């Protein structure tokens, strides 16, 4: 059995102070990033995202879903801390020299900068990333220069006092990290550059006529609201570093196979005829019964109006959309000409929040969210079938929304008094609409039809409810299925999201407790 490697006390102390110096540097670099600079570790994470081949990234996304980015961030931060620990161990070594120590301190910061520029330069601004990484590097070096000698002063500083001092510094670093969380919200909400500012359309020609809600559904605790608050709307994209667009210099270019290419400033976009539209967006990686789906009232201009101004040529096939960070996707030109396909700039009455695509994004009916490109920079008419980022990873090119339903209430436990209990949820089938939702309480042997609420609009989900009296206490299984407006009932075949979106009935297992 191999023996564990044991570090001598001096090296253990160096590892501790090196990791602590890095932690302090990461705190400061993160606080600096709140004013609009890319956090240095995120530059490395973005490079990993962009360089990772599909045969690795697809299984990871399938298994981890929206946790994938979070775990990537944790992994990158762990690499920085390991680098700091190694630098600390070298700094307390009897044979230490300043040059190698400084090189080891600089390695994580310069490595993140170089890799970010090599593999993700379209998403990582060089100047601001140099500033943030430089600040982190300086703080890291100064903190280690102070902590390493102090940790070795045995004669003047007793061991308990040194431990208390290091513990105090660690506590201060932790408090700084905790304090950075509310500060990030303050900075993120400051200024119109990041969106989220209340605004009305300047020339609204069509208002969204929202159907009245069913008053019987509003009191149901746990049921999804008809309109999702911006803060609660799901966010999925490839950008670990969210683009921060300056609308003073931003332009929307309409180019490609057109007779009259043109560019729009933000003010010129706002001056165009605008329409409101209630619209549900769903991520293609949403699992059956998942929460990567949301509904908002969006405001923007019709895509076909922009294309009419440009003069689309007869050979046009696809409309390619490019984000300011280089992300690209496309859909057929016929889909672009539908009146519900929009370039939007308002979300629930405010300018698009940064994470939802400020200053402008695309909204396409009946297609999963990956093709509703955010941070829009260019609209290009192509004469061929362009494969976007996710299609190159093997995901669906058509990306048509599958019919699905989700059971919101009750949860895992139903406290039952003997009266009928409420089962409720949402169903969505893209532009096809929902015609029927059915529930089964006997494993699919029989089905009962739920009551449907009028949808907020023709492109939104539909809420439903059903009153059900259990036949007694104990474990129960509830299945739900939906039928779309074309009369097609969703398939019972359970399928993972990759590559065409998830399918299968939503199922919950209840523990009915008689009270």
Helix/strand layout:
Elements lengths: L8 H25 L6 H12 L2 H11 L2 H25 L6 H23 L5 H26 L7 H30 L15 E3 L45 E5 L5 E3 L1 H6 L2 E9 L10 E10 H8 L7 E6 L4 E5 H4 L5 E6 L2 E2 L9 E3 L12 E7 L6 H4 L11 E6 L3 E4 L4 E8 L5 E7 L7 E2 L1 E2 L9 E7 L5 E11 L21 E9 L1
Parallel strand pairs: 1-4, 2-11, 13-20
Antiparallel strand pairs: 2-3, 4-5, 5-8, 6-7, 6-11, 8-9, 8-10, 12-14, 14-18, 15-16, 15-19, 17-18, 19-20
Helix pairs in contact: 1-4, 1-6, 1-7, 2-4, 2-5, 4-5, 4-6, 5-6
Annotation keywords:
alpha+beta, globular, 11 helices, Immunoglobulin-like, 6-stranded mixed β-sheet, 5-stranded mixed β-sheet, 3 domains, 515 residues, Sulfite Oxidase, Chain A, domain 2, 20 strands, 22% strand
Task: Describe this protein's structure.
The structure is a single chain. The protein folds into three domains: about 180 residues, no CATH class; about 190 residues, Oxidoreductase, molybdopterin-binding domain (Sulfite Oxidase, Chain A, domain 2); about 110 residues, Immunoglobulin-like (Sandwich). About 5% of the residues have low confidence. Strand 15 and strand 16 form a beta hairpin. Helix 2 packs across helix 4, helix 2 crosses helix 5 and helix 5 runs antiparallel to helix 6. Helix content is about 35%, strand content about 20%. The chain has eleven helices and 20 strands. Strands 1, 4, 5, 8, 9 and 10 form a six-stranded mixed beta sheet that branches. It has a five-stranded mixed beta sheet with strand order 3-2-11-6-7. It has a five-stranded mixed beta sheet with strand order 13-20-19-15-16, with no helix packed on it. The chain has about 525 residues and is α+β, with helices and mostly antiparallel strands.
